[in-house]
Amino acid sequence: MASTEIFFEHDRWGHNLAWSAALHVGVTVAIVAYAWIATGRHGSNWGEGGGGSAMGVSLVSNVPLPANPVQTQNVLATESKGLSKSQPQPIVEDKEAIPIAEKNAKKKPVPQPTATRRKPQPPPVEQASNVVPFGEGGPVSGPYSMFNIGGAKGGFGFTGGGGDFGARYAWYVRVVNQKVSENWLKYEIDPRIQNANRVYLTFDIERSGRPTNVQVEQSSGVPSLDQSAVRALQRIDSFGPLPPDYSGSRVSVEFWFDYKR
Amino acid sequence: MRLNFETRIFYWFFPLILVATASGQDWIKTGTGLGVEKVRIAVPDFKATNQDPRNTDLLKTFNDTLWNDLNNAGIFEMVSKSFYPLGQIGVPGDVKFESWSAPPPSAAMLVFGNLATAGNNATVQGWLYDVKNIASPQVLGKQYTDVATTQAVRVIAHKFADEIILRLGGGINGIAETQIYYVSARGGHKEIWAMDYDGANQHAVTALGTISLSPHVSPDGSRLAFSSFTGAGWEIRMFSFDLNRVVSFPRLGGTNLSPAWSPDGSKLAISSSRSGDPELYVVDQSGANLHRVTNSKGPDVSPAWNRKTGSQIAWVSGRTGLPQIYTMGSDGTNVQQYTDQGYAVSPSWSPNGQFLVFSWMRHYGPGAPGAQDIYIMDVVSKQWVQLTHDGGRNDFPAWAPDGRHIVFQSNRSGSLQIWEMLADGSNQKQVTTSGNNSEPDWSWK
Predict the structure, then answer these.
(1) For each successive 10 residues of chain A (261 residues), what is the average pLDDT?
(2) pLDDT of res. B1
(3) DSSP string of A66-98?
């Protein structure tokens, strides 16, 4: 049963194959015939520059196009032909010309500028407004130089070996700044406070670097701000040992905290 | 975090005044808002002072190590070497202050020095100069002598870097000589390994041939507590670096994990399931005086002491379902919950006691992205900041002793490795590469 079906299918397939082959042959013949007829009718007389089997190409510049009536703005009219810039006229000397003496034949020598010696001035260094220029050869001036504290006039006028800590060890002052700033947590301050007066703290730094004697010298009037400033100091175990070549036993620091939300 | 706080808090400018009292007492007058920017430091290569052929190798090791240590410290802005003026600096006489303090280097600090090899010894002289302070520039001057090997020279560079960081970092010791202990499976078994903080010098500590986990080094660095699988279960083991072997520690029964040292080194907090579900216990470092400090349904694991006070413990509790971070007094009183969502594990308390760092899947469950990242939380205000964002699973954060660095494990590179970063999440870098490495712990000094 199964085998007869297979044979039956075989027959039909062969039949179709014959049709298919015939159709293919027919189409191929038709194409060839059309190509032959078409080329025969039109010949080879299109697309050729003038004969030969290769296609001739005419250069566009050889085509006599009409001149563009609109002047382009690209090139300025100049006195020198073909150049976009006027060239100075070459001076042609007249060999027969007689020189006429000028009115003032004596020419004054052009005054030469005398070279003056100037010290090279260093270019002005711009200080960013929030940078403390520490350690540049002396205590730093600021808007608070009018303070009179501890008999030192203006804060800067002292002399003697005992008072130049900030100048000699600017790096240490910087560490103190950074360390206190890091440990001051603003969220401890009453969130309703927008602005407050400055709090002044004083403390000592012992040789080991430990802060001691933390006191509020001048309160801001806001207890939580005063408290946060004191706590900032209390959080610090050490600023690092004082510089080994520093002779004093401790350094006193006045530190202020400004708060603005 | 610290840096973040600063930038948020201090935007005001105040000058600095200095006065002296009539008695000669030194006064510094200064205010907030000044110290937020990093110190610009220039570190030209050290100079060889003689013609010994070994100098080239030693100098390369020294210069690379010193540069990396200072670069990793987190408090410096390294001036790029392409800005440096020409000419090597070996001794203070070579320093031209203006060429360093003016642009383009604009350096505030200059590190320079020289190296000489003679016989078996290498001698290094190093200086730290405040180049803007021409009158008295020297902050530090040091001389070191050791055998002329790259290993010894590396140690010299670490020591010198730590001295610089101590001076300019506000009295906090540098971490250049610290160690990291971790679990590595590269030998076939999970053993405890150790390495320098920069990933150099990796070596195995234990060779027990079983599974060892959660290494924690004692504050004095003499002992290492860890948890190891024995025939009966997970027990606390103790390794002595003095004796270079595992010393006895009582077996507690049940599953005992994650021993955490109290900051004075006298006690351990552990999690033990000897009575049923895992609970926290505090025990003397000898193994005596075991007492239980948590008592609630659900697991209590991963203790971490407050490293500043030693009077509080942070830990992970599953009492409300998923694990969350809690703190309590070391006697078990005053329990406070710190996280209330997601899946939070592996707390570690900062050396200054101010921050907790932990691993958190903030959104956990079906449909959640499931990223596990490191977070830092201010203990008082409970404000938190996400430190890792780069995908993968990040876990087991641990603090460096300077409170500026955090080590953690991450699989973001494809395999589980040890990573380090600054405590504000910046400067993340991979320190291990071979095998699988996990559960890092940073030495206390």
Answers:
(1) 52 81 94 82 46 40 45 55 67 76 69 72 53 38 28 26 70 83 81 83 89 89 88 88 84 83 70
(2) 44
(3) PPPSSPPSSS---SSTT-SSPPPPPPPP-TTPP
d(C-alpha B188, C-alpha B209), whole Å: 9
Q: How confident is the model at residue B192, as a pLDDT? A: 95
Q: Does an H or E element contain B406, and which?
A: strand B405-410
> What residue in A sits closest to B40 (Cα-Cα)?
A171
Which A residues in the span 184-213 are in contact with B, Cβ-Cβ below 8 Å?
Answer: 184-187, 198, 209
Domains in chain B, ordered, with CATH? Answer: 1-37 (no CATH), 40-168 (3.40.50.10070), 179-442 (2.120.10.30)
pTM of the model: 0.71
Chain B residues in contact with A254 by the CB 8 A cut-off are 27-30
Delineate the domains of chain A, giving CATH numbers in brackets: 172-257 (3.30.1150.10)
Distance CA B112, CA B91 (A): 8
Inspect the interface and report whether the beta carbons of A171 and B27 lie closer than 8 Å.
Answer: no
Q: Above 90 in pLDDT, residue B246?
A: yes
Contact across the interface for B29 and A155, Cβ inside 8 Å: yes
Q: Name B339's Cβ contacts closer than 8 Å, sequence gap at least 6.
A: B324, B325, B358, B360
Between A130, A170, A240, which is nearest B167 by CB? A240
- Which residues from chain B sit within 8 angstroms of residue A237, using beta carbons? 171
Question: For residue A171, which residues of chain B lie inside 8 Å, CB to CB?
Answer: 108-109, 130, 133, 139, 167-168
Contact B6 A163 (CB under 8 A): no
**C-alpha distance from residue B151 to each of B80, B179, B367, B431 (Å):** 26, 15, 51, 19
pLDDT confidence of residue B4: 46
Print the SS3 string covering A106-139.
CCCCCCCCCCCCCCCCCCCCCCCCCCCCCCCCCC
Render pLDDT for B421-444 as a digit per residue (tens, 0 to 9).
Answer: 998 888 899 999 999 999 999 999
Among residues of chain A, what percentage have pLDDT more than 70?
A: 56
The predicted-structure confidence for B38-69, as pLDDT tens digits, reads as follows: 889 999 999 998 888 888 899 999 999 999 99
Kindly state whether A242 is in contact with chain B, defined as any CB-CB distance less than 8 angstroms.
no
- CB contacts, 8 Å: B107 with chain A: none
Structure confidence at residue A159 (pLDDT): 27
Mutation site, B29, B98, B101, B402, interface A, largest A CB count within 10 A? B29
A89 shares contact with chain B (CB less than 8 Å):
no
Q: Do B5 and A182 touch (CB under 8 A)?
A: yes
- The predicted model gives B279-308 an average pLDDT of 93
Confirm if B261 and B305 have CB atoms less than 8 A apart.
yes
- State the distance between the two ends of chain A, measured CA to CA, in whole angstroms: 99
